[in-house]
Backbone:
């Protein structure tokens, strides 16, 4: 009787082990195809995020970043309230946007980073002002630039990331 039980348990273990092993990874073999239209410039870096498409492409930047400025020094004196104006120059409605802001000392050394984002619809040729808070540093000649931006658009939630070569510069007092 013990041999029958042991044999039955061995058969069950073999079935369970073979059912779990050697399953092909379909995700690695079938990467999502990029749409035929491109929306990021040649200087862009693309990567994928779960359940999204990523594209790179055209000759011009997808977003135009301008009017970087300090709005105010926060009342506690430890933060600056800053803003950058962003214009959607694509032919798609953007549904989410993110700016990565880098703080530089007078020698151009990175001393801190910050970001600002907005989850709203930005139609083609429409502009939005993104605001953020940056920690005040006791560094003379401190400035801030947009290092890169990310955005999503379309029904398939296409994701784009692009580095900014000609960001406006905010110089802190």
Residues:
């Amino acid at each position: 009787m013990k041999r029958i039980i042991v044999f039955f348990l061995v058969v069950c273990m073999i079935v369970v082990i073979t059912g779990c092993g050697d399953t092909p990874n379909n995700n690695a073999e079938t990467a999502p195809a990029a749409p035929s239209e491109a929306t990021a410039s040649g200087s862009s870096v693309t990567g994928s995020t779960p359940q999204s498409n990523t594209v790179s492409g055209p000759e011009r930047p997808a977003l135009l970043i301008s009017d970087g400025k300090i709005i105010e020094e926060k009342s506690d004196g430890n933060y600056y309230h800053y803003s950058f104006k962003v214009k959607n120059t694509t032919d798609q409605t953007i549904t989410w946007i993110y700016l990565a802001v880098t703080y530089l000392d007078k020698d151009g050394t990175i001393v801190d980073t910050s970001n600002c984002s907005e989850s709203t619809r930005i139609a083609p040729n429409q502009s939005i002002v993104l605001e953020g808070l940056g920690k005040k540093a006791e560094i003379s000649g401190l400035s801030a630039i947009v290092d890169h931006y990310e955005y999503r658009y379309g029904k398939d939630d296409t994701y784009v990331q692009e580095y900014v070569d000609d960001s406006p510069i905010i110089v802190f007092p």
User: Anything to note?
Assistant: Helices lie at 2-20, 26-29.
